[in-house]
Amino acid sequence: MTSAAKVRHAVGRIRWYVRELTGESAYDHYVAHTRACDPTAQPMTRRAFERERMDAREADPREGFRCC
């Protein structure tokens, strides 16, 4: 493996870690799960998914977004 390939591999692993840590990959996981469970099901759009996700997080005080 060349040094450029090693750098690309390391950058890819860091990108994966950051996406998992920040929750950016949650939609990708949702789509994969939806297709695995029912291939004919139409997954929500990314916008609808994020809206539902934020509504659920704001409604649950244990998530830490709201104090009241």
TrEMBL record:
InterPro entries (UniProt xref): Sel_put
Organism of this sequence: Streptomyces niveus (Streptomyces spheroides)
Record Pfam families: Sel_put
Superkingdom in the source lineage: Bacteria
Name of the featured protein: DUF466 domain-containing protein
